[in-house]
Structure formats: C-alpha cells, structure tokens
Amino acid sequence: MDIRALGYLRLETTDLDAWRRYALDVLGMVQATGTTDDTLLLRVDDRAYRIAIQAGDSDRLLAAGWEVANAAALTEAAAELEAAGVAVKSADDAELAERRVQGLIHLTDPCGNPLEIYWGQAQDHTPLGTPYGNRFVTGDLGLGHVVLPVPDIETALDFYENLLGFQLRDSMKLPPQAVPTAAEQRDFHWMHFLSPNSRHHSLGLYPGALPPGIVHFMVELETLDDVGRGLDRTKAAGIPIASSLGRHTNDRMVSFYAQAPGGFQVEYGWDGLIVDPATWVAKEITADSFWGHQWNG
Fold this sequence. Notes:
By secondary structure, this protein is of the alpha+beta class. It has helices at residues 16-26, 71-83, 93-99, 153-163, 224-236; strands at residues 3-13, 30-31, 39-43, 51-55, 60-68, 89-90, 103-108, 114-119, 145-149, 167-174, 189-195, 203-206, 216-221, 241-248, 254-260, 264-270, 283-285, 289-292.
C-alpha cells in the first residue's frame, strides 16, 4: 500500500473556544477558510487545512487522515484492505466537500482507531501569515506525527507495518507503571514508532487505552527559536507543561509537551531526524531522551 504521509487530523472538542485560543494564540497556527461557529479549521502550510476541530459532546479523535498519491492508489488501498478483511466505506459527496479532498475511504484499525485514507486535498495559495512569523515543517513529510492508543499492540503493529506498509523505525520497552491501561500487565510493554516516509516517525503506537483515542500529536517548527517562543507563550497562557524541553533519542527532536484541551498533549518540536528508508535499520531505544523531557504526570 502506497500511503505517503499523515495528511490531517480531525478532532471533536467540548471546548472549541479553548482550542481556538490554544491553536491560534499559542501554537501559532492560522484559521483556515471554511471555519464556522462550530468547526475550527487550522492551516500550517499551503494545504486548505491540516487540523479540523469540531464542537461536540466529547473530546476525542474523529480521524487520522493518511494521504495517497492519486485515485488509483486509493482504489488499490481499498482493494488491499477488503482482501485482508478490513471493512471500508467510501465517503459521500458531502464528506468529500467538507474535507476538501477528491477521494476518501473510512476504516478503523484493529483497536478501533478511526482512520481515513484520501487523495487530492485542496491547497490554499494565499500567504500563510502565521502570527509570530513561525514556520512549520510539513511538505512531503506530512503534518507531523500522531500517537494512537492500541491495547493490542502486536495486532496493531502487524496492521500498520504489513498491511498499510509503514516502516518500523524504533521500539521501546515501557515499564508497567507507564501503561496502566494495558490489556494485560507484563514485565514491560513495547511501544513502536513507524512512518510511510522519511520523517523518523509519523505514527506512534502506545500499548494501552486512552479515552480521547489519541495520546498526542506533534508539529515541527523550522527553528529552535520558534519552539522557545512557543514555550514562553504556553507558560504565559497558563497551559500546563506535560514534559519539559528535551531532545528525544529516536527522532532527535528538541521539543516540549503541553496539555491540550481534551485530555491529551501536543508536542512542539524542532530538528526531527530525516531517514533514508532504503537503508534504515529498526532498533530498540533504551531511553526516551538524551536530556530534558521531565514528565509531570
């Protein structure tokens, strides 16, 4: 299957105003054309939007959108999924118009996480005009990365690696106390990092359950100063810092984590590792970070 990148995220929130303040005033994203009183669309590059947040009765992930190259690739993906026994549903015209794409299928992974595979997203050719001059790293690498909760870690890894075609980049053993919602308690639990492109990881698989259906998502900035200024804005806004500034061992990202509205986190980072998929060798990392990333629970 020829998935190219994490294209977008769709979220539901019980506090759209809080998300509006957080995304625009703190993260430095830009409100996109098509935003309404009950749906916030966010730009970080030349795509019509990368994140859609709609008002609702719960805080949860509505879908992670994965991009393929064209209509033929989407047809092939649907056929491969159906041959593997995965139920797929084609989007109707209203859904295509809402998502600003030309083709789309809905499905869920083995742990029930909602996914969309699509092609042909519209662009916005107007200048981005971020409020602080900050720039995001996207392009062929996609939006960034998302970490999904998958209590059945072995089945989920098989699905993403062997069916969707993601490349396993690294794995890490988590102690039982780091996975209180594991399906069964073990001496340790594997967490995996994968990608369909040269970004070190576009997807993380966390081996436990989490009510919002998302652990965190990451956006990458072009400069360290962009991240530092974002950290200052986060603190000034009184938003809890979930993890202090640090550098990860796997993707070398310098980042911090903040609590987002809705019970999960956003990672704000710089200098993520770009790999050559043809020569990459999957490894076990034995520490989360080289320095920093002090977690606050």
